[in-house]
Write a structure and sequence with these properties.
This protein is α/β, with parallel strands linked by helices and 234 residues long. The chain contains 7 helices and 10 strands. The structure holds adenosine-5'-diphosphate and magnesium ion.
Amino acid sequence: MALLELKSIKKDYIQGQSRVPALRGLDLHIEAGEFISIAGPSGSGKTTLLNLIGCLDTPTEGTIILDGRDLSHCSKDELAGIRREKIGFVFQSYNLIPVLTAYENVEFTLALLRSSRELTPEQSRDKVMQILADVGLKGLEKRRPGDLSGGQQQRVAIARALVKEPLLLLADEPTANLDSDTGQEILDLMLQMNREKGTTFIFSTHDAMVMDYARRLILVRDGQIVEDQRRSEQ
Ligand SMILES: Nc1ncnc2c1ncn2[C@@H]1O[C@H](COP(=O)(O)OP(=O)(O)O)[C@@H](O)[C@H]1O
Ligand SMILES: [Mg+2]
């Protein structure tokens, strides 16, 4: 069974009197453990696609099946639950809570999870410390986002997404605000987490260097998939 299946997905936005077709009939199968780049120019539909997969929005037409569940049969609350428990989201602008430390940003997300109710305070603490160490932030746990570099903030955002042990980690242009060396470090980290933890990653980009990291490259243009290449392990 595919982890994620999209069938004939269309998404229109309503803007005043007009309809903006953002996705125009998209089919996609994704297996657990893939490391995928959704690439395409600005306005091609990348964010729209990630938002649909991440249960942040619903399609105008078509079916999305995530881990065997047809999302079109889910209520708003059920979708919010899937998003909270099962989807890790990393944004271009990090979206950390500025008044919380790196540790607290990750702990806050962990505390919201149903699975965290079974953890003792010590187990929660160990889990947060371990994930921060995994993403290379050992020693920086007490820093607030404002006292971290852009790359370090993005690492906190990745830790916060990974602490869910998500079915899918979605990253919308995660390197767009970083210089190219730091962007490369973030991609290396995501690839390492994919290999070590088996986390499925889907990230979007319009940067050729970033596309190159993918083991599967899906090119979108004007709301349609124009190419879907699988590449061998580099
Ligand atoms: N909230 C919205 N309302 C109206 N149009 C939108 C909205 N969000 C995106 N669009 C339009 O949908 C298309 C795809 O946008 P988007 O998914 O953001 O592309 P990308 O992330 O590849 O830049 C664009 O034409 C964009 O202008
Ligand atoms: Mg976008």
